Prior knowledge:
Layout: H1 25-40, H2 45-58, H3 66-82, H4 88-100
Helix pairs in contact: 1-2, 1-4, 2-3, 3-4
Amino acid sequence: MTGDSVMQFGNFNIGMVKSQGPVDQRAAHEQMIDAVLAIRAHVPEPDRAVIDDSLSILDTDGPVDRRRFRQALGAIGGIAALLGATGAPVIESIGNVMEAFGLS
C-alpha cells in the first residue's frame, strides 16, 4: 500500500493532490487484489461470498466484459465502504483501477 506524499511551502496552501496511484494497469490491478484480500477476513460470510464472486471476475488473465468488471468493482467497493477506515485502501485502489482501465 502506498501513502500520500505531501510537500508544503509558504502560506495559504489548500488541498492535496490525490492522483498519485499507479498508472500501470497491472500494478493498479495487483494493488487492488492485495487490498481486497486484506479486508476479506474482516467481513461476515455473506460479504466474503460476494468478494469471492467478484474476485473471480476481476482476477483473470482473459478478456472480461467491461460491464461485469465495473459491477464487480462496485460490489467490492460497497463492502469496503461499510468497513469505514479499514476499507479505505480498497476504495482508493478501486479508483486507481478505474482510472488505469479507463472506467471512470
